[in-house]
Design a protein that fits this description.
The chain is of the alpha+beta class and 151 residues long. The chain has 2 domains: 75 residues, Roll (Ubiquitin-like (UB roll)); 63 residues, [2Fe-2S]-binding domain (DNA polymerase, domain 1), CATH 1.10.150. It contains 6 helices and 5 strands; from the N terminus they run E-E-H-E-E-E-H-H-H-H-H. It has a 5-stranded mixed sheet with strand order 2-1-5-3-4, sandwiched between helices. Strand 3 and strand 4 form a beta hairpin. It is globular.
Length: 151
């Protein structure tokens, strides 16, 4: 059994401790907003917050999370009013949309740590891959959300 605090609710999940957190979130808890991309923590589609830090859920064993607080895209703002989500819509960032939950989670973590990032700060923090190449719109949306984020 693994005990996880996800989006403010504690869950007891009957999985092996070495099961990747991504699969526990998706398969056991039904939180499918966190996506599988590469499985080796490179693409960022599976980005969640663990104690406020952007982490790649595909590479973290569920048993290693301990009492940390996990936030998925579903828990970032259930009504979609987080400043990053609003900026994403205003800038029409998504194309295919597959990577967007991970991108939003990475951007929200960046703004929580650095509410007024420079382009260089954004480039350094936003290591998620977007197959559609919406990087300029991502950067613009992060600047739009800067100073408004309540992550």
């Amino acid at each position: 059994m693994v005990r996880l605090d996800v989006n403010g609710r504690v869950h007891e999940v009957d999985v092996d401790a070495d099961t990747p957190l991504l699969w526990v979130l998706r398969e056991q808890l039904g939180l499918t907003g966190t996506k599988y991309g590469c499985g080796v923590a490179l693409c960022g589609a599976c980005t969640v917050h663990i104690d406020g830090q952007a982490q790649r859920a595909c590479a973290i064993p569920a048993g290693a999370v301990g009492p940390s607080k996990i936030v998925t895209i579903e828990g970032l703002s259930p009504d979609g009013r987080h400043p990053v989500q609003q900026a994403w819509l205003a800038q029409e960032v998504p194309q295919c949309g597959y990577c967007q939950s991970g991108q939003i989670m990475a951007a929200a973590a960046l703004l929580a740590e650095n509410p007024e990032p420079s382009d260089a700060d954004i480039d350094q923090a936003m290591t998620n891959i977007c197959r559609c190449g919406t990087y300029q719109r991502i950067r613009t949306a992060i600047h739009d959300a800067a100073g408004k984020s309540r992550a």
